[in-house]
Amino acid sequence: MVLRIGLIGCGGIANAHMQVLSNMKDVQLAAFCDIVEDKAREFNSKYAKGNGTVYTDFTRMLEREELDAVYVCLPPFAHSNEVEIAAENGVHVFIEKPIALDMVKARSMVDAARRHGVKTQVGFQLRFGAAVEHFRKMVDQGEAGPVGLFLAKYYCNSLHSPWWRDKSKSGGQVVEQIIHLYDLSRFMAGEPRSVYCKMDNLFHRDVEGYTVEDVSVCVLRFKHGGLGAISATNFAIPNKWLHELNIVSRNMTVLFTDANNAVFTPTNKPWEEQITIASRKNLTEAVNLDFLTSIERDGQTRNPIEEGARSLNLVLSARRSAEENREITVEDL
User: Fold this and answer.
1) From CA 94, how far away is CA 243, in angstroms rounded?
2) I want to staple 4 with a disulfide (CB 3.0 to 4.6 A). Which of 30, 54, 122, 165 is the partner?
């Protein structure tokens, strides 16, 4: 079975997905769409050897092409009704995070996917890390016990794209970037009950057009009673992206250097040895394989669009907490 794939948004993150897909034998990159036609033509040449069709109108592409799936790789401010139209045409959807900038739009996407029965996948690739998967398996099997403490940090130092620096277009660092760690908190520690967040722009006030936060700290209370804290900055080591996790559960303490690598120390049986997970797993490949396999086998994806909506709701709650200077209850969706 060869899956015909279309792409909406021929920018930076799209390159990562197309590099993976172009090397898969059962995938045909059939159509490329971008409002800048030259970008779509460049992608067509680079990843489909010029054999795909180029569009500047995604609606026309979805109506004309017989596609099995479409990849929506747009900046958050650029989302309109790509998911809804794809769903109406029976096209499965891979969408990058955050799926929207507000919950009204997010709910519209979720409703459309459910109504038309299409598969969806959100680009939360950290869920596929070898060490993350190992811990989640221990949780599911009852070996880890309830999580009492979830600590995460994300350090970078880059001006990023002009749209990223504009809070009205990106939503801010927490919404656009640190959402990966907020999503992991849900995936690994459980659903949050409330958040209390502080954020500020301390280091880029003299940079024209820079309106997003560059430091943030958020405390989470999970429904089962555990606590979490997520800190982030965009003023650490220039052009280095670092994320780390520490988790303390009833039976286990885990120190993650990243999603693929961690040291697990059992604390309920002191005579047991540490477990080290060390992997170089390609997480972009993994999240794509999960999506395509779900289509081929009529299964479920790990990150359906409902998960994208829940994690968006969490980071929007964190931002609201900082804006209103108070603890915010995270509403159930």
Assistant:
1) 24
2) 30
pLDDT number for residue 161:
94
Name the residue among 139, 254, 131, 150 with its Cα closest to residue 192: 150
Q: Which amino acid is at 304?
A: P
Please report, as a single letter, which amino acid is at residue 146: P
Residues in the chain predicted with pLDDT less than 70, given as ranges, are none
Residue 90 near residue 115, CB atoms below 8 Å: no
Three-class secondary structure of residue 92 per DSSP: strand
Domain count along the chain: 2
Strands 27-33 and 53-55: parallel
| Full domain range(s) for residue 191 | 126-281+312-329
First to last CA, the chain: 36
Place of tokens 């690994």: 188
CATH of the domain at 27: 3.40.50.720
For residue 281, is it left (φ>0), alpha (ψ between -120 and 50) or beta? beta
Coil/strand/helix, residue 83: helix
pLDDT score recorded for residue 1: 82
Asked if residue 233 and residue 100 are part of one domain, the reply reads: no
Prior bond to 98 cis, omega within 30? yes
**How far is 235 from 273, CA to CA, in rounded Å?**
38
pTM across the whole model: 0.96
Identify the residue whose tokens are 């603890």. 327
DSSP character at residue 321: H
β pairing state of 261-266 and 275-277: antiparallel
